[in-house]
Amino acid sequence: MRVLVVNAGSSTLKSQLIETDGKVSLMRCLAERIGDADATLSISFAPDFQKVTYPVPGLSVPDCLKKLLDILADDPESPISGLDQIDAIGNRVVAGGEHFSKAALIDDGAREKLTLCEDLAPLHNPPADACIDMMRQLMPDTPQVAVFDTAFHTTMPAKAYLYPLPMEYYDKYRIRRYGAHGTSHRYAAQQAANLLGRPLRDLGLITCHLGNGGSITAVNHGRSIDTTMGFTPLEGLMMGTRSGSIDPAIITYIMRREGISFDEMDSILNRESGILGVSGFSGDMRDVLEAAAGGHERAELAIDMYVYRIQKAIGGFYAAMTRTDAVVMTAGVGENSAELRERIFDGLAHMGMILDKKRNDVTGEIGVNRIISIDDSPIKICVVTTDEEMRIARETDDLVSRIDG
Ligand code: ADP
After folding, report:
1. What pTM did the predictor assign?
2. What pLDDT is attached to residue 23?
3. 17 contacts 25 by C-beta, under 8 angstroms
4. How far, in Å, is the centroid of ligand 1 from the Cα of 374?
5. C-beta separation of 265 from 251 below 8 A
6. Sequence-ordered alpha helix ranges (H) in 284-350
């Protein structure tokens, strides 16, 4: 089955055309810094994946997807000669709330429920829904599936997923921790088990997905038992533009003092905080690392805070698990930044996580996973390149085949 995977983020669009029978990618696409003047869309086709990059200033996420479809349909190098050669579309959706505990085929009923989930991930679900709507219009006969980032975390126990608020809010509004990045954490855990040569059910793993958004999950015997993201992907780590966890009283305090609305406050916490808020100029880790190397004090402070919060989360989950065999690093920062990994694990050696600085000197390469701790490290440290798109393609194929069959 040929599955077009659509992974719409807040400022990125990742897409792959995947032939699920042979588990091969036929096309890879990445649009970055979407919405900015320097936004780009890079597309490459099998077999040699020579990247062609198009400037896409000011385009929205669905606009970028439309441009990709036009190129797929018309480019002489494209692996398909028309969009009718796409058998199914697999969409990554961040938040499924309690409406979706597994992947779902998108029909009118499922589409309505997706709207109810938008509040839970205001940066991610709306662009994903917009892409789904556009594809339903353009390719109405092609089945579409939504694969949810929250599904992996449905195994969390009540002590982890409930908040210490009056229970009426859970009863009335289902306010609880849902987590996110589940597809990535599940995949990273399985890849780490393969790398360690042991069954996932025997292992205790701490998986760290560090990208624009970031979350850490305690994966005990293959099941998510706790994760840093919560009711929405705003909780937990300090992120590119999101604050992560802060004292909730700060929110009402600022709103009163500044006389600002709920929507404005929401935007400050989701879009103006985190690394961007502290550095004052960018939420992109590459920019901030470069500035810090040049002596930019606020950039250095932002990195220091970012690292410290990751260290505290890893330490917390070490305590939450019955055993810890490995810490797994994945996503943009986790896979690519040797410098940040070194800073993170420099503070964790006393817990038995001992980095080998030479082995750490690597950047992510799709399909290549590595152990970067010293041989005697009691807890291994792994780098796993995340392949969320392949997992989404496989889940899409499973669901569509079951329905067709
Ligand atoms: P998303 O959360 O949108 O899926 P990614 O997982 O692609 O994002 O991660 C994007 C982040 O990874 C950005 O902050 C980017 O700067 C960072 N990143 C990518 N490559 C590197 C690198 N070589 N060094 C440091 N940070 C990097």
Report:
1. 0.86
2. 86
3. yes
4. 25
5. yes
6. 285-293, 297-320, 331-336, 338-346
